[in-house]
Protein 1
Amino acid sequence: MRIPDTITNDFDRVAELQSRMWNHNNHYHKLLLRNIQGGCNDSLEIGCGSGEFCRHLARNSIRVIGIDSSSRMLERAEKASHAPNINYVNMDVTDCRFDDNSFDCIVSIATMHHLPYEATLRKMKRWLRCGGTILILDLYRSETVVDHLYSLIAWPMNVLMSLAKNKRIGQTPAEAKLWKEHSKSDRFMTIAGIRSLAEEILPGASIERRLFWRYSLVWHKKEA
């Protein structure tokens, strides 16, 4: 199943919007980076967008590949940095055919809910070298009382962080309209569903709820 053209078009439009200093994804960049064990020869980001996390990976990797189906987002990534060890590739990750054991670190931020989750997780496992790390930050569908409590706490925290970091509350009218339209295509898994798949495919993965409607998944591939 390929990424629908409507989603790619949405992110082409997102690329035209003025980027914010702080958002729900880059809030967790440092947390993700802390889970990378040592330096990396080769790193991959699936759905790299404007390349913000690729630039972090480039400081800890010899080579970085950032994949995204939105050409406009990759144009932004190229303008933001010309780091010689980052290669941005405009393609649908479902079309990627990397060799097994190609990467020391594979990352996906707010992209997995657009992809065939199980198939993508299995690909990531095959592409990862022994001793390497898979890092996922994504959105989930609230189901339990705990989920809804996290959501309730996130609302006032979002207002406070937006004021502190972006000097405004919430989104601009243009952003709100675009994301409202985009949300019609979103299909989120529950934490229970994510745990079930991870237990089967990535045994021992650490999955944690996070504020701002996110969860993190960290998995280290043990040496053979």
Protein 2
Amino acid sequence: YAVSSAMNAMQQEPGVAAMQPQRVEELLFRKFYISYVDSVRREDVNFSRKGGYKMRVKYEVRENLIANLDFVAKFEKTVSLDGR
């Protein structure tokens, strides 16, 4: 939920469409830090200009549940950063 909220907040950030991807990433990770999100790495965030300015976060968390049994959580979300 915190990752999705941070991404939606970036979508509403004033002037985000004119920012460089590095600046957007920096602001996003500040929001992650405030929300105690530690499972997303910088490699998990991608930017593209195909079909408009978009930011995608895709990552997987794998944790031990019991003995040799793990649980896996996958997350993928893309938001448009075109200033609309």
Protein 3
Amino acid sequence: MDVCEHVEHTRWCDLFCDVIPAGGGKPAGIAATLERWGMAPEECVAFGDGGNDVPMFGCVGTSVAMGNAGDDVKAAATMVAPDIDDDGLLAACRELGIA
């Protein structure tokens, strides 16, 4: 990364990372979406299971870590759902009243 300009990285597990444009990534995408639709962060929910999802959690009112996420991801979320393979996304949506 020392020789790369205009990019940054975010790790989503021990073996892999995303290389993204500097200042880009999930928080930038959420900010653009909120602006486009005139929504407040408190009206939004983000779901994630990797370390690269943690910055996104700070951009929304409710953040959901999937049960298969690491402890650091779960600690950053406002709620933890069952494992994604156990219909965790659906269970979280039901608990939040959006399904």
